[in-house]
What does this fold into?
Amino acid sequence: MRIAVYPGSFDPFTNGHLDILNRAAKLFDYVIVAVLVNPEKKCLFTPEQRVDMINAVLGESENVRAVHFHGLLVDFCRQVHACAVIRGLRAVSDYEYELQLFSINKQLAVDIETVFLMSSTQYSFLSSSIVKEVARYGGDVSTMVPQGVDAALRGLFRSGGGTKK
Ligand code: ADP
It folds into this structure.
């Protein structure tokens, strides 16, 4: 069984993330979306909310599931017996950070491979930050995120939410 981990903040999960995940799910037997719990980072949704939202989007899909994790990514990969980490690449601007992440993970765990998938053209300018920015000011993000995420954003901003940041 070849298991891959797709880590990130996913605050919130976008159609760009979903595209990478669906494509990764064709390459591996099982893909775990690993929502990073990072108290240092101000997020709109709690890790639990993000995991629940992603799992609701995934529905009954057999070989993909979201969980949250904290600590080192390579430790989490070992824990779930993953052989690879999935990352998405959009523009050149992603490259430097991703290369750094790759190098560190390779140093810590030489046996865990990182697989980069290029963003599909229609999602190459889509980011969680852009989605939050547009949604915060009442803009329509329904083409940028799955339906459940759109509903959660509407709920949050309609109620004057967005507790952190
Ligand atoms: P981070 O891990 O930096 O907090 P995110 O949670 O936003 O970033 O994204 C997780 C992963 O998904 C990263 O590899 C990121 O480059 C990738 N990604 C984000 N948005 C897109 C997109 N629109 N298309 C393809 N990949 C994306």
